UniProtKB/TrEMBL annotation:
The keyword Transmembrane helix applies. The chain crosses the membrane at residues 364-386, 398-421, 442-465, 477-497, 504-527, 602-621. It is a multi-pass membrane protein. Its main location: membrane. CDD domains: ABCG_EPDR (cd03213). Belongs to the ABC transporter superfamily. ABCG family. Eye pigment precursor importer (TC 3.A.1.204) subfamily. Pfam families: ABC2_membrane (PF01061), ABC2_membrane_7 (PF19055), ABC_tran (PF00005). SUPFAM superfamilies: P-loop containing nucleoside triphosphate hydrolases. Residues 32-278 form the ABC transporter domain. It is found in: Membrane. One of its GO terms (molecular function) is ABC-type transporter activity. The lineage of its organism: Eukaryota, Fungi, Dikarya, Ascomycota, Pezizomycotina. This is ABC transporter domain-containing protein. Gene3D superfamilies: P-loop containing nucleotide triphosphate hydrolases (3.40.50.300).
Length: 626
């Protein structure tokens, strides 16, 4: 539990001002105002519509930290998202003004940032690295390395993280920053682009009251000293956390119950007959009087809420707010964005690759566990199919081992799903904050996988190929490695595609397993392509990457070797070498209908499948924004 108060909490205003940093200082946005915001959604199963935000107005000034409070389902997130320009496919009306004028979405994104409830930090990076990578992604080479370092130092200091700058964020098996420190780091990294307006969705959720207070007080200091606008949706803050806010927006059932400065809250509610008792958490009291869901007498609670809302609608305070909105419009000033150096987009995938590389060697879950799993499988395969001979009895075991080496290995790519989903969540957060798009993400994701999959292919083959006694030549070994590598790459590409489309673990696991099961079934081993029914034969087999790998490995083994029929000369396959009591390996291939000399074609098709899946993943991420 964190109990230390931020140093500046004990200090004077001079201390607070010391936290002001030239790059964070807001002299661009003076007001954020909004007039009659309404959000309507269709009611399921009827033609009616429901207002989940109803006629909400307000004005927030530079240097103000605002609490958006209300019972569960009151519309806090909806209002936060609407103000932040993050509502999609939803009917909205009303206007939002910055400095009294309307702003394009692109310009608004440049002056604002959004901190989600889940911070999606990368556990294997240190606090400083987290900020450094955020800075390099957001600002690329538009600022010098010295300026980047200066900004990071300032943010670490502002959020009390200097002493923890080399601490890892933390993974499930490596403890790192505390919950509160993580939250502070998440907020700090969203300030790297110097937003003037910061939106935070429940910044204290999951934290105890001491940690919540600490996060909010650091934020308050940064907000005050840099004149930022900070808007937080918040559930039920403790009294001390509540008192940190400058103003309160109180919502219930989509309607405003109060908005205004925090010190005036007591006086206002006393004036409408709801005096906040002393020694009582004011946030708790206010939530109680506007909550209908948990009231014992719902009818009375609903009537009370209606009275509070209608008193607010006819209050002098609301008309004063409306006047101020009009005043801001009349005195409209342009939002002049600071000149930013040009960012070099080509550097973004390189930075992402660098970050993924650091993650991959520090986080055992990224690739380490999979390497260990494949090594276990290699030892298992090599010892089960141990030192097969060139006697005809080994032909079927060789074929079975090839099936295992191609099909089962690609099936196990499902182990990559959790790591990809984690990376995808980081991407969605960073894309929403305008850092980079799906092209950079897909390129970096592909290139970070290549060396690791190649390593897995080599390690697996070194162990299993020689233990099982596949055709003992360097060329044949390298061909085997190539097929396995393409197999793993195709299987990983399928995972990337399916998990991009369905970013829910159980769904993408079920679908990837189903597709790999299908590829196994139609790949040529379980049912010979000669008798496979036409439905599967004329589509599934052509896009089944396992089938090309199986064919390639079969040709690699059987086109190079003959097998002895043994005692009695009863050959299991009839080939031209039968009179010599031998089986020509090509005869085995003929049973499957596999031809030699097609390695180039099959490898080309595999590359096309890999590229195809990656392009589809790019398309999905381009279209899907969540
Ligand atoms: N896209 C949507 N379509 C239909 N209903 C929606 C949609 N978004 C939100 N709602 C509904 O609007 C109401 C307000 O939702 P919102 O998430 O804004 O509330 P909240 O105050 O943030 O709640 P909580 O504190 O529980 O997160 C809820 O009843 C919710 O079910």
């Amino acid at each position: 539990m964190e109990t230390t108060k931020p140093e500046s909490q004990h200090g004077t205003l001079a201390d607070v001002e010391a936290l002001a940093d030239a790059h964070l200082l807001n002299d661009t946005v003076q007001t954020l105002s909004f007039d009659s915001l309404t959000v309507t959604v269709p009611v399921k199963g009827s033609k009616e519509e429901k207002k989940i935000l109803d006629n909400v107005s307000g004005i927030i000034r530079a240097g103000e930290m605002v609490a958006l409070m209300g019972p569960s389902g009151s519309g806090k997130t909806t209002m936060l998202n609407l103000l932040a320009g993050r509502t999609h496919k939803i009917a909205t009306s009303g206007k939002i003004f910055v400095n009294g004028g309307e702003l394009s979405k692109t310009k608004f994104r440049k002056i604002s940032s959004y901190v989600e409830q889940e911070d999606h930090l990368i556990g294997s990076l240190t606090a400083r690295e987290t900020l450094d990578f955020s800075a390099r992604l957001a600002l690329s080479n538009s600022i010098t390395a010295a300026e980047r370092k200066r900004r990071i130092d300032a943010l670490l200091a502002s959020f009390g993280l200097v002493g923890n700058q080399t601490t890892l964020v933390g993974t499930p098996i490596r403890r790192g920053l505390s919950g509160g420190q993580k939250r502070r780091l998440g907020v700090a990294s969203s300030l790297i682009t110097c937003p003037k307006i910061l939106f935070l969705d429940e910044p204290t959720s999951g934290l105890d009251s001491a940690a919540s207070y600490e996060v909010m007080s650091y934020l308050k200091n940064v907000c005050k000293s840099n004149k930022l606008i900070v808007i937080c949706s918040i559930h039920q803050p403790s009294t001390s956390t509540f008192n940190l806010f400058d103003s309160l927006y109180l919502l219930s059932q989509g309607k405003m119950c109060y908005s205004g400065s925090l010190p005036e809250t007591r006086e206002y509610f006393a004036s409408i007959g709801h005096e906040i008792p002393h020694f009582y958490n004011p946030a708790e009291y206010l939530l109680d009087i506007i909550n209908v869901d948990f009231a014992q007498d719902k009818q009375a609670a609903s009537e009370q809420l209606q009275v509070i809302q209608s008193k607010w609608n006819s209050s002098e305070k609301l008309s004063a707010i409306k006047d101020q909105i009009v005043e801001a419009q009349n005195g409209k000033t342009d939002v002049v964005l600071e000149a930013q150096g040009k960012t070099t987009q080509i550097l973004i995938p390189v930075v992402l690759l660098h970050r993924s590389f650091v993650k991959s060697y520090r986080d055992v879950f990224a690739y380490g566990v999979r390497i260990a799993m494949y090594m276990g499988l290699a030892i298992m395969m090599g010892t089960v199919w141990l030192r097969l001979s060139t006697h005809q009895e080994s032909i079927q075991p060789f074929i079975n081992a090839i099936f295992f080496g191609s099909a089962f290995m690609s099936f196990m790519a499902v182990a990559y799903i959790p790591a990809f989903l984690e990376d995808r969540a980081t991407f969605i957060k960073e894309r929403n904050n305008g850092l980079y798009g799906p092209t950079s993400f897909i390129i970096a994701n592909f290139f970070i996988g290549v060396p690791y999959l190649f390593l897995i292919a080599i390690l697996f083959s070194v162990v299993s190929y020689w233990l099982s006694n596949f055709y003992p030549s360097g060329t044949a070994f390298l061909y085997w490695v190539m097929w396995l590598f393409l197999d793993l790459l195709a299987a990983e590409s399928l995972v990337v595609f399916v998990s991009s489309l369905f970013p829910i673990f159980v769904v993408s696991l079920a679908l990837t397993a189903f597709l790999n099961g299908l590829w196994m079934s139609v790949g040529g081993f379980l049912v010979s392509p000669r008798i496979l029914n036409v439905f599967w034969k004329y589509w599934a087999r052509y896009i089944d990457y396992q089938s090309y790998v199986f064919q390639g490995m079969m040709v690699n083994e059987f086109s190079r070797r003959n097998y002895e029929c043994g005692e009695g000369c009863h050959c299991m396959y009839s080939t031209p070498l039968e009179d010599k009591c031998m089986i020509d390996g090509d005869g085995v291939l003929a049973v499957y209908g596999y031809k030699t000399g097609k390695n180039g074609e099959w490898a080309g098709i595999l590359v096309a499948i890999i590229v195809g899946y990656r392009l589809l993943s790019w398309l999905v991420l381009k279209i899907k924004r969540t």
